[in-house]
Amino acid sequence: MRLIFTLILCQAICTNAQNLVVNPSFEQILPDAVVVPCEFTQYSYDFPRRAKAWSGFTGGTPDLLRAAENCEWFTSVHSGEQCLGIITYLPAEDVGQRNDFHEFVQGQLNAPLKPGRKYKFECWVKIDSNIAKIHLSKVYTPKTPVIPVESGNLGFCFSVAPFNIHEISPASIAESALRPQINFNNIIESRGQWVKLSASLVPDQPFQYFTVGNFFSDKTTPNSLPQDAHQLINQKNAKQGSAIDKIKRVTYLCVDDLSLTPETPPTPPQSLEKALLK
């Protein structure tokens, strides 16, 4: 009976150490979905129609990137064959709009989190200047000036219920003051390499969904561009009538291998242990 109890205890610990994020590496796609290597997403509805258990929001075109050896700008992901790609920094002045342009995606967990319990969150990210330039050259023109920027404020906002496709945008976030429970405020200095981010989370509600993106304005987001360079770009952009000709300061962020696990598995009740040892 002692052996049986040991096996049960081991199974309980292993179960609780499992990653709670559904499709954490973006490898699972929906039936009939096709992910073409070395291509960006064209429409806002493409990403949720491809990535299983993930969704997007109106106004953005998050990318489900598939690596390929013959792709000059994207030859490998952190693991597997696919990862997420989103814009987390692109000032309103650069696109001729009232609000900054940020992209967001929504993931889900395979079970609600337990309030008061401590969880460990990890993910791998990469900021690549070459990807940023190629991406915006396809959105605008190859001659559109692009300045890749390393920036911070990558946030993960957990919720009990999923947000609908119209609830998350820079404008709606500014109005609601929605803030993520996990936020990597500092500049992510990846220099084209994959780096790991980690944090702890103690939820106060039974969260089962989370939204990924920059929940802060670009004016308050730490970035690698000196202030005098920002001022010069703003002056030049103010003289350009067309958004195509404005200088684009952009952070394009690749995300892969998200993980959320309980930091310490619960101790089995003594009464259960005594009962099993009899």
CA radius of gyration is 21 Å
Number of helices: 6
Give the averaged pLDDT, no decimals. 91
Give the beta-strand count: 11
* Whole-number total of structural domains: 1
What distance lies between the first and last C-alpha atoms, to the nearest angstrom? 8 Å
CATH architecture: Sandwich
Shape: globular
The residue fraction in helices comes out at 10-25%
Query: Approximately what portion of the residues adopt beta-strand conformation?
Result: 15-25%
Order of helices and strands: HEEEHEEHEEHEEEHEH
The CATH superfamily is: Galactose-binding domain-like
User: Could you give a short account of the major beta sheet?
Assistant: 6 strands, mixed
Q: Structural class of the helices, strands and pairings?
A: alpha+beta
CATH topology descriptor: Jelly Rolls
Supply the CATH class.
Mainly Beta
What are the segments in which pLDDT stays under 50 over at least 5 consecutive residues? 1-16
How would you characterize the overall build of this protein?
The protein contains six helices and eleven strands. The protein has a single domain (2-277), classed as Jelly Rolls (Sandwich), CATH 2.60.120. The chain has 278 residues and is an alpha+beta fold. Strands 2, 3, 5, 6, 9 and 11 form a six-stranded mixed β-sheet that branches. It has a five-stranded antiparallel β-sheet with strand order 1-4-10-7-8, with no helix packed on it. The radius of gyration is 21 Å and the shape is globular. The protein has helices at 2-16, 92-95, 129-139, 170-176, 227-238, 270-277; strands at 55-56, 63-66, 82-89, 105-108, 119-127, 146-148, 154-159, 182-184, 195-201, 209-213, 248-262.
